[in-house]
Amino acid sequence: MRLGGFENDMTLQQKTSLSYRDAGVDIDAGDALVDRIKPLAKKTLREGVLGGIGGFGALFEVPKRYREPVLVSGTDGVGTKLKLAFALNRHDTVGQDLVAMSVNDILVQGAESLFFLDYFACGKLDVDTAAAVVGGVAKGCELAGCALIGGETAEMPGMYPEGEYDLAGFAVGVVEKANIITGREICPGDVVLGLASSGAHSNGYSLARKIIDRAHPDLNARFEDERTLAEALMAPTRIYVKSILALLEKVKVKGMAHITGGGLLENVPRVLPEQTVAVLEKSAWPRPKLFDWMQAEGQVAEDEMHRVFNCGIGMVVIVAADAVETALASLRQSGEAVWQIGHIAARQGDEAQTRVV
Asked: Is 101 in contact with 312 (CB distance < 8 Å)?
């Protein structure tokens, strides 16, 4: 009898019709999200886009004004800043972080951003949350002057905890072959300029969250000017594309470094010739309150601060001494806060290539 009952149960299960929704994937929600995304993507259209959202592949024609175009690509994510987004239920800024990480990276080689693709993955699709995230992506693309021409939304039941998701982004830009910025011409006597960050951008958040766990602050209390601590922590990464492209029309830039994971100490050397060192004066720029708070609450050593966080400098630009005033004027005209933060010197032996003094 027991065996027969089991067989009957199996027969019943075999006859029950299953759907993708029963497996945890809601196709209708995915379609609704696409409908929400299309007008956002349309706002980012620019010269070169040959197709809209929805095709199997995105088509883009390199602008004809380039004689010897070289494509430059970059990919990145947002990291554990997403954990704060989940905890605070703030999803409208991490999309801009995603775009910034890639477009600022390819910018340091002189590349104009052309288009961007995003990848959003979750266990169960919440259309409002996903639309907020992609809205931030679209805003970032507008700030960078690049087109959001495609991406992927993946709903994968069992892969992510409820309410969580992951993000990845891919940017493609172009630079004239003769104008690629390599850093090879940097030499002692050159000047280091620092462009202000908007906060911690999207780096160092594993340490930041550890500090928050220790300090137990009121994240919604007023922290700086009119901002709460939560707003300071979630401030989206500044996108420097338009300001730097305008600068390149006026000044020869010898090298640039996007200050991401690794902070000032590890990113600036990536563009320096082996025989040079960047000497940065920490008194030359104002460090935002957020970094002072994290250092105090976490009792973080000064070197560790400069190795983990941007400490108020999101982009470094290196120019010859006779180009400094023109460069400062151009960047400030573009709306950047910028300071002369150091100089390039000859390297002594195997000393570290960035010194903060």
From this structure: no
